[in-house]
Each structure stands twice: as C-alpha cells, then as structure tokens.
User: Which sequence fits this backbone?
C-alpha cells in the first residue's frame, strides 16, 4: 500500500473497518524506513520484528483499542522497556529502561504499533536536530537543511511518511519548531495535561510530551489518548484543576464565529521572513472571514523570554543531569585514577559539547553569589511573562503568531554560533515558560535560494483550552488548504 497518501485517522478507520490489515500498513512503513532512514536519519532504533508481531496480533483480534494497528513512533528520550532509551547521547547509548513511560503504556493499551525510537538533539538540548551522538537528522524537504529540534527525528519521520504520527517532548519549542520546518502539525499541551512519567528530564518545570502529526485531527486523536491525570507524575494536573478531559476531536467542528483572536505587536518583527509575515496576515484574515474578531494584545515581556528560558532551563538541566556520573547511570570511563577522575572523565566522554555548555551555564547561574542575580531574577521575570499571557487572554481566546522567524536553516549553519541557535526559539519559549498550550500548523512554503521550504503558524491558548486551539487550527487547516503542504510534494 502507499502510505504517503494517508494519515493517522484514515489508517485507523481503514483498519477498524477491515479495508486494511495492520500487518500490511506496518510492513509498508517499515519498508519506507529501510529505504529512506539512511538518508534522513530519523530513527535511532527500529523494532521491525516486534512491530510486525504487534500488527499481526491486531489483525487476529488479539489486540484492540481506538488506535488498533496504527504505526507510530516515539522520541528517544521517552522510556520503553523494549530497545534502549538513549536521549541521543553516548552517556545513555546502552541504557535499557526497567519500565515504560506512561504515554508508551497508553499507546500500547490503545492498540498502536510502535515502530521505533526517534533521533533528537542530545538530551533534547538543541533547536536544529543536529546534535545527536547518532548524527544529524535531515529535513525531508531538502536534506541539506535541518529539520528543527530537538524533536528533529519526530518531525522528519512524520513529514517523510516514516510513521503515521509521533510522540515527542517540548521544553522550549522542541515539538513546534520541527513541525514548522518539516511542514507538519505539532502540539505542546498545557503543562500537567500529559504525564511526564518516563520522560528523561531536561528541565522539569518546562518539559511536556505531545504529538507530531500530519493533520490537526490526528493531533486531537493522539492527545485524546495520552491526556489525563497520572498518579506517577507529581506535576500531573488533577481533574479538579483541569476539569474532565474534553472531546478534542469534536472540538474540530466548533464554529470560530465570535471567538477573539489576539495578535501581539511583539510578534511582528522585521526579522521575520516575508513569507511568515504574509502567512500571519492571511491566517488572521481567513479567521476573520469565518467570524472571528481580531484584537491587538500586548505581551511586553516577550523580549525577555529567551534569556529567562535559558536561565531556568539550564539551571534545571544542571540539577537533572548531575545523576549521570559514571556510578548511578550511564557511561563509565575505563581505568579512572580515582573517584574524582571517574566522575570527570565519565561526564567529559559521555556528554556532547552543547550539553556540557548548558550544564556549565546552569551550574554558574545556581552558584553562590550568582543565584539571586540570575536564577532568582529569571523566576521573577517568568512570573511577569505568565501574567502577560493571563492579561492577554482576558481580551482574547487565543493568540496567533509565527512558530519560527523563517524556514529551516542549512545543516551546520548554527553549529558555530550557539547564541544564534538560542534566538531561533524566540516565538516558542514563552509558551513553556508560562505553561500554556501551543500548536504549530503548516503556514505554506517560503521561497529560498534552495527552493521552497515549509514555514509554520502558531496558536497559543489559555491553560487547558486545547479544544479552542483545535477549533481554530482546524478551521485554518481547511481554509489554507491551497498552501498547506501535501504529502506527495515531499522529495527525498
């Protein structure tokens, strides 16, 4: 079968109705992975035998559920008892988890077929998808370009039809940036809506698991599967806070008439690619034509989002990654001279340059004499950023903005300039800092000197209002279908 013309909802419905066999669909995806992964490098591990056994069990009626037989993949910082959980790092290249992440268990209970683990920037620290110990992932639209990070493998796999959908993590844009650069849909849910149990921690107050999919409907279906309280996650929202999980798929049919769409002047930067500005204007106009009211909102602390994020994230990373010392977890150096040498050499050999850089930045920000000046101040600004969004959402139901300033950069373009890489996150980090949900959808194609490349548009919403985002994003997806990216346009 030709999996390049299908999406998750279509595959699910065809298998459920008996029009397709899961074994045939799974085999088709595995054949595509075998053919193209050597070029794209989206997967760190492929579970061919396990996936086929699972698919055959679905066809035999032994495995059932709302996603029965649908082939998906998960980012390689989400724990699985099968295969390794490497985080794209030498530090964990042979680590086998003794338990499954909650979202993996939910996928399996829903009947999904997990094809493999997806490449990522080491420990999810990167904006381009290049910094994995297993090598860079490449953008299916142009393999000289980056797919976005840190979930580059997930974005590239879905865009190249190497999986029907993927689960990834988003700490400062790691789902939405690859979605934008690869021309697919990426959702970062409200902090606490999806369990983080089994997600290897980068920055615990910012990390969130979410879907990368072909369509907005597919994202709603996957979120329906993984949303909800988990007693194993102390930061998981309880029903009394978030309310019962709504029907996200039904929200796609909600009218956008009467909804207020916020446009922040801070997001209309001269640094935006002309195609991004044009897509933003067109999206606002299309939603206004459907009855939405466009209002201007103010997010005055937006300019402090990147420094605030990189202080909070690196400080938490410094703490979270302290456990990788050659004794408790991970890579252990050979023949150390003493205990100090064991720690130092194991970490020096196990971590890549970007991870070391962020550990050092975070350790400095938390050190005596600098804690108040850096980390404590960042927490205060974080509160101001949250208050900006709280005030904005008093005036609107959602905020429309770019996902990135432009299309994908060339591989290697940001390697020698970490600051330039950090600034790529300017439109995504505040969503994590504030803990609100955000969805990136394809905004069309930008003309570049290398041909056409995808760009993304982003919708941000109040806490636990993913349904509103799905309604608006679904409407835009229908209205912008002349510029949305079709699977058959991808050339590998």
Assistant:
């Amino acid at each position: 079968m030709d999996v390049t013309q299908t999406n998750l909802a279509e595959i699910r419905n065809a298998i459920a109705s008996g029009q397709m066999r899961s074994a045939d669909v799974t085999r088709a995806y595995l054949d595509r992975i075998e053919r193209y992964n050597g070029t794209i490098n989206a997967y760190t591990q492929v579970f061919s035998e396990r996936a086929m056994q699972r698919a055959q069990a679905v066809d035999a009626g032994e495995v059932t559920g709302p996603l029965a037989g649908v082939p998906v993949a998960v980012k390689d910082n989400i724990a699985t008892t099968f295969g390794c959980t490497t985080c794209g790092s030498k530090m964990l290249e042979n680590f086998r988890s003794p338990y499954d992440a909650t979202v993996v268990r939910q996928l399996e209970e829903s009947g999904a077929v997990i094809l493999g683990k997806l490449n990522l920037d080491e420990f999810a620290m990167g904006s381009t998808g290049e910094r994995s110990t297993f090598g860079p992932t490449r953008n299916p639209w142009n393999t000289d370009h980056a797919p976005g990070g840190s979930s580059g493998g997930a974005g590239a796999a879905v865009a190249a039809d190497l999986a029907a959908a993927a689960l990834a993590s988003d700490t400062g844009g790691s789902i939405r940036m690859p979605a934008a650069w690869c021309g697919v849909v990426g959702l970062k849910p409200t902090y606490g809506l999806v369990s983080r149990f089994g997600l290897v921690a980068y920055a615990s107050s910012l990390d969130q698991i979410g879907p990368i999919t072909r369509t907005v409907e597919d994202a709603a279906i996957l979120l329906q599967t993984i949303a909800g309280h988990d007693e194993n996650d102390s930061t998981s929202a309880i029903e009394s806070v978030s309310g019962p999980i709504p029907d996200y798929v039904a929200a796609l049919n909600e009218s956008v008439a009467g909804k207020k769409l916020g446009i922040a002047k801070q997001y209309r930067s001269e640094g935006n690619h002309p195609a991004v500005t044009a897509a933003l204007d067109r999206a606002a106009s299309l939603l206004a034509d459907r009855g939405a009211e466009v209002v201007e909102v103010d997010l005055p602390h937006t300019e402090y989002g990147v420094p605030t994020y990189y202080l909070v994230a690196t400080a938490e990373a410094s703490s979270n990654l302290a456990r990788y010392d050659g004794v408790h977890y991970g890579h252990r150096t050979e023949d150390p001279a003493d205990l100090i040498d064991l720690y130092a050499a194991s970490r020096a050999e196990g971590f890549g340059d970007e991870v070391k850089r962020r550990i050092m930045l975070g350790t400095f920000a938390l050190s005596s004499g600098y804690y108040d000046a850096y980390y404590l101040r960042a927490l205060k600004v974080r509160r101001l950023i949250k208050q900006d969004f709280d005030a904005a959402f008093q005036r609107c139901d959602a905020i429309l903005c770019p996902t990135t300033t432009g299309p994908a950069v060339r591989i290697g373009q940001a390697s020698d300039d970490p600051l330039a890489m950090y600034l790529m996150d300017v439109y995504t980090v505040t969503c994590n800092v504030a803990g609100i949900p955000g969805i990136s959808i394809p905004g069309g194609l930008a003309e570049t000197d290398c041909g056409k490349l995808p760009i993304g548009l982003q919708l941000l919403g109040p806490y636990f209002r993913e349904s509103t985002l799905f309604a608006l994003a679904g409407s835009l997806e229908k209205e912008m279908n002349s510029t949305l990216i079709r699977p058959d346009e991808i050339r590998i």
Notes: The two ends are 19 Å apart (CA to CA). The chain has a mean pLDDT of 95.
